[in-house]
Design goal:
Blueprint: H1 8-20, H2 38-42, E1 54-58, E2 61-64, H3 73-76, H4 87-92, E3 115-121, E4 125-130, E5 144-147, H5 153-164
Antiparallel strand pairs: 1-2, 3-4, 4-5
Length: about 170
């Protein structure tokens, strides 16, 4: 495992190692297979993450070496599997490749977007509130967003049509 240090590039490397770790068994690990040795690391054929083509020479630089020409690379990296996670938070609640830890729970999760998790009641509601630490918070017009998980398509449509007619 790469020693974690602060800074953007190091956080990305931690995140890449995490998603590619065979122990985590992430369903989206294949999204990073264009990186040199990423697939081999994910399948346990390469044990040392330092052989994977992602490294951070300093706090503000991330270097990615591809295994082959990948013309859709810029589109690929917009997928959430490429997003960094906060290493301190992950490790506070378990190991890098441990599944089901509480790092994503209300009060634990650390993000950098315009909203932050305020409330999460399983199969009832997920409520996000405006992030007071967001760099462009003055231009965020919404104060909160509520998601209501609905597992039935007909119920979902009826709820949508009812809310739309109000």
């Amino acid at each position: 495992m790469v020693e974690w240090r602060s800074g953007g590039g190091f956080g990305f490397c931690f995140s890449f190692e995490r998603i590619l770790s065979p122990g985590l068994a992430s369903e989206y690990s294949y999204m990073l297979y264009c990186i040199k040795n990423a697939e081999a690391f994910n399948k346990g054929l390469v044990k040392d993450f330092l052989l994977v083509g992602a490294h951070a020479p300093n706090d503000t630089t991330l270097v990615i070496s591809l295994s082959k020409s990948t013309p859709y690379f810029l589109s690929l990296i917009s997928h959430n599997s490429w997003f960094p996670v906060n290493p301190k938070t992950i490790l506070k609640f378990g190991s890098m490749d441990e599944r089901g830890t509480r790092w994503t729970r209300q009060g634990n999760i650390v993000g950098n977007g315009p909203f932050m998790l305020f409330k999460w009641h399983l199969m009832t509601v997920i409520e996000l509130k405006k992030n007071p630490f967001y760099w462009d918070r003055a231009n965020v017009k919404l104060n909160r967003i509520c998601f209501y998980p609905i597992d039935n398509a007909q119920t979902e449509e009826r709820s949508f049509r009812t809310a739309s007619s109000i």
